[in-house]
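Q: Please design a sequence for this.
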């Protein structure tokens, strides 16, 4: 049997707006994979030191996202495949990878009750990077993109739909340490309260 794969590349340059402080142009992609070994590659150019956030919604949907929508305002239904995301530097080296992320902002699938969308957050210097998204089990052969992919992706009986959001925050726009600590403390408290409030 011949195994085929499709590599889809979408060019995205992330530049930063002057206002508001936490705004940056985003990449928000959705569609369907042709097969479980397809690789979605998104080149990203950062013009300043930034926090890059990568979030998928295809598996569990966007119900836990802000206003229940992805970054371009679409409601993403659950039912897609379990994705993995990779962050790759300009030399093709893998920086980080995530398979099963955080809910919220991801959501537990209403059928499987699993939280299998990917969440990846990294602070990055100015430069060129790539974000790769694949179906679960399709990993890099080596720690460098030049080694290719294993072509062992698996939809596991799920749909072919995906949703990928890439957002950025200019490090210089983040509040002073004291303010940032208060924001973080509030977020942690809110998450704790949410967990405690569940039946």
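A: Design:
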């Amino acid at each position: 049997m011949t195994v085929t794969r499709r590599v889809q590349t979408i060019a995205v340059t992330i530049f930063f707006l002057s206002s508001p402080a936490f705004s940056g142009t985003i990449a928000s992609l959705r569609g369907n994979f042709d097969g479980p070994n397809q690789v979605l590659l998104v080149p990203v150019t950062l013009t300043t030191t930034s926090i890059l956030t990568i979030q998928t919604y295809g598996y569990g949907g966007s119900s836990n996202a802000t206003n229940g929508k992805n970054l371009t305002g679409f409601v993403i239904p659950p039912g897609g495949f379990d994705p993995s995301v990779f962050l790759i530097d300009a030399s093709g080296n893998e920086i980080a990878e995530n398979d099963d992320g955080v809910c919220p902002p991801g959501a537990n699938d209403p059928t499987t009750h699993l939280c299998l969308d990917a969440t990846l957050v990294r602070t990055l210097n100015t430069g060129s990077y790539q974000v790769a998204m694949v179906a679960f089990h399709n990993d890099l052969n080596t720690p460098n993109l030049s080694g290719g992919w294993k072509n062992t992706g698996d939809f596991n009986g799920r749909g072919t739909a995906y949703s990928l959001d890439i957002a950025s925050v200019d490090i210089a726009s983040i509040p002073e340490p004291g303010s940032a600590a208060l924001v973080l403390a509030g977020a942690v408290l809110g998450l704790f309260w949410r967990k405690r409030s569940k039946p």
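Q: Thanks. Anything notable?
A: The chain has one domain: 7-174. The helical segments are 177-197.
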